[in-house]
């Protein structure tokens, strides 16, 4: 956690999020009022799908590098949601990030149980960076597109509505690269 601040963990809103984007995956928070940047069409499940490549800038120890990493993290999250392949998402997630672990578990369990997720991609607005020297906090408005969530092979699909949330990602840069340490609704306190 960000030293000296209490953050609202987003675990209590996890299922509301699933109901909105995967039934509403809501986790990305925002930066003041800018319209979200349009994104490329999201991947569809396929046996040939591969995780998106990490841009070089997402490895840099700069404000721009932190923003590029958060953008990449969301690209990987979108990929994991529609494929069930959570390997890269786990690699980018610090074990201390409970909210991140819940998404990994949701995606893994959904596909293991014969379920599926389609649509519901997250699109980021302008990212605001705050660095306290220990952890970098990246806040952004996230637009979550319409989608469909099927929990198991015997479940009926549930449509999800377009929504938006303000999320903050915590990240640290180690010798291995950036890692997401927390994910919560709203701005840092």
Automatic annotation (TrEMBL):
Ranges where the record places region Disordered: 32-60
InterPro entries documented for this protein: DUF6318
Residue ranges occupied by any DUF6318 domain in the UniProt entry: 52-178
Protein name according to UniProt: DUF6318 domain-containing protein
Organism this protein belongs to: Aeromicrobium marinum DSM 15272
Native organism taxonomy: Bacteria, Bacillati, Actinomycetota, Actinomycetes, Propionibacteriales
């Amino acid at each position: 956690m960000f030293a000296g601040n209490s953050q609202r963990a987003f675990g209590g809103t996890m299922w509301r999020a699933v109901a909105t984007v995967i039934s509403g995956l809501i986790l990305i928070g925002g930066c003041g009022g800018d319209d979200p940047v349009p994104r490329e069409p999201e991947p569809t499940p396929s046996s040939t799908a591969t995780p998106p490549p990490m841009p070089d800038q997402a490895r840099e120890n700069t404000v721009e590098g932190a923003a590029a990493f958060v953008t990449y993290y969301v690209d990987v999250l979108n990929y994991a949601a529609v494929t069930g392949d959570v390997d890269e998402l786990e690699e980018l997630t610090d074990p201390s990030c409970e909210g991140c672990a819940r998404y990994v578990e949701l995606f893994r369990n959904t596909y293991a149980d014969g379920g599926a997720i389609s649509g519901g991609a997250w699109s980021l607005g302008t990212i605001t960076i705050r660095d306290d020297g220990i952890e970098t906090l990246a806040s952004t408005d996230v637009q979550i597109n319409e989608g469909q969530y099927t929990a198991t092979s015997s479940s009926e699909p549930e449509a999800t509505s377009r929504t938006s949330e303000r999320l903050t990602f915590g990240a640290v840069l180690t010798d291995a690269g950036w890692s997401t340490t927390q994910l919560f609704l709203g701005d840092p306190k």
